[in-house]
Design a protein that fits this description.
Two copies of one chain form a homodimer. With about 190 residues, chain A is α+β, with helices and mostly antiparallel strands. The first copy, chain A, has helices at about 55-60, 75-85, 150-155, 180-185, and strands at about 5, 15, 20-25, 25-35, 35-40, 45-50, 65-70, 95-100, 105, 110-125, 125-140, 145, 150, 160, 165-175. In chain A, the strands form four sheets. A seven-stranded antiparallel beta sheet of chain A has the order 4-3-7-10-11-6-5. Chain A has a three-stranded antiparallel beta sheet with strand order 2-14-15, with no helix packed on it. In chain A, a hairpin with a 2-residue loop joins strand 10 and strand 11 (about 125-140). The model of chain A has no long low-confidence stretch (mean pLDDT about 95). Chains A and B meet through strand 1, strand 2, strand 5, strand 6 and helix 2 of A and strand 1, strand 2, strand 5, strand 6 and helix 2 of B. Strand 11 (about 125-140) of chain A pairs antiparallel with strand 1 (about 5) of chain B, so a sheet runs across the interface.
């Protein structure tokens, strides 16, 4: 084990990929993004950081967006939404959609969808972090177990940015807020 | 396929788990956290959202912290750092450490470590999002392939919060910024 110093830059861990859904003048748009995280439990709030893209302009205008989580079988169309700008291609017909209360497009084939109202924008260098209140949360009944989203059924798509690879989720590796209690007792 | 409306709350996708490392008066502390994401490419900047914990107080005081990424084999000790507060237990001797330029503890058994200087704090409900400039990035040479962090070697630990499960990373599921080009050509 020898730790090497790398050039400070992107930290290469796997992140869930979402389609950021927006709508302007009746036309839906989708952009793949992976710099996202919950930031608040109460109220439920999530943040996604975006470079200078059309999606950013539309969220500023409309104040709403969705985060639609594709499964591994949707890898190619998701990647398409990451390589082609909405300024160059009409992505509005890529997916069957449904709507909640914000009007942002929610994707039928994404088994997990969140719709958000923009709370504020946190500027970070050339990126902007869009912090949204989760006002609607939807899951396909096929991925629920006891009313909760079951990741083994959802099969989320993960991105490893620096090596430009998507990954599936692997096997369970332990019980959270439980195995640590056993660790304490063994010490 | 039938989409059901859930109560707005935590969106259950898998997230990488990090140990947030801090030091005060010569004593190191670690807290497991999974609400984290890159937020800026230039400068390299990362954010982690924390509830009201000791770690938050120490980062406010010192202005520095580390994000140390454990592998699946470190699941139990990582979970321990998530269930036991630094106000109740001395976690300083849990890991062998090394230091970079900030003085925040970096963990030898974590094959990927980032050290950060606090840039600003974004308040989100009861949580606070600590946004830090990545000033040091370290990887164990055993997880590098062609000088880049190789997730197949790193074996990152992922958390699914709502079902309280850790997961390993699964098999590769596609090529980013490439499969979407083929998708476009097929359309």
């Amino acid at each position: 084990m020898k730790q090497l110093r790398l050039e400070p830059g992107i930290v290469n861990y796997p992140m869930p990929v979402a389609l950021v859904g927006t709508a302007r003048e009746g036309k839906d748009n989708y952009m793949a993004a992976a710099w996202l995280s919950m930031v608040s439990h109460t109220p439920p709030r999530i943040a996604v950081s975006l470079g200078p893209h059309l999606t950013r302009d539309i969220i500023r205008e409309t104040g709403v967006f969705s985060l639609c989580f594709p499964s591994v079988q949707d890898e190619a169309v998701t990647d398409y939404c990451g390589v082609i700008s909405g300024t160059k291609a009409d992505k509005s017909a890529l997916f069957s959609t449904f709507r909640g209360e914000t009007g942002a497009p929610l994707v039928q084939t994404c088994a997990l969808n969140a719709e958000c109202r923009l709370n504020h924008i946190d500027i970070n260098g050339l990126n902007e972090t869009f912090v949204g209140d989760i006002v609607g949360l939807y899951a396909d009944e096929s991925v629920l177990t006891d009313g909760k989203v079951d990741l083994a059924k959802l099969r989320p798509l993960l991105l490893s940015q620096l090596d430009a690879r998507y990954y599936a989720l692997g096997p369970a590796a332990g019980r959270a807020w439980k195995d640590g209690v056993g660790f304490r007792q063994r010490r």
